[in-house]
Design brief:
about 140 residues, mainly alpha, Rossmann fold, two-stranded parallel ribbon, about 5% strand, globular
């Protein structure tokens, strides 16, 4: 959901990203490559303007990490995984909540209710909006 919501935010917030070329992708530490987003995730993202209809999961790998200046993670366990397996990326990996000066995990709503998905999507979008300046600054380093 974070990928779709960030893409939407960048697209509709042209005054924030005007003239900038953004490359946004998501990957999972324990993802099943090719797996589609759950219907609840699709619905939650769609309700906030995001599009997950064509989403296809991919696993974190060195080539993918090397393409980005900033890697935002939902949980500390994701950061630990990346730092352990891809230490060369450690200086550009942050919790999404760190963009708003917090250090909380965003729990994966998989297997939970639509309401849980909606709440998680809303939390993600709020952090993107409120942390936008820090996201921009870190992504340009």
């Amino acid at each position: 959901m974070a990928e779709a919501l960030l893409k939407h935010y960048v697209d509709v917030s042209a005054n924030h990203a005007q003239g900038e070329n953004w490359s946004i992708a998501s990957a999972g530490c324990w993802a099943y490559p090719g797996m589609a987003a759950t219907s609840r995730a699709v619905s939650a993202a769609e309700n906030l303007g995001g599009d997950l209809i064509d989403h296809s999961a991919q696993s974190v790998n060195a080539d993918l990490l090397n393409q980005f200046n900033l890697i935002l993670c939902m949980e500390q366990g994701h950061i630990d995984f990346i730092n352990r397996h891809f230490p060369e990326a450690a200086n550009k990996v942050f919790l999404l909540t760190a963009m708003v000066n917090e250090d909380d995990d965003i729990d994966d709503p998989v297997g939970k209710s639509q309401s849980d998905y909606d709440q998680t999507a809303s939390q993600i979008l709020t952090i993107i909006r409120n942390g936008w300046e820090r996201i921009k600054d870190l992504s340009h380093n």
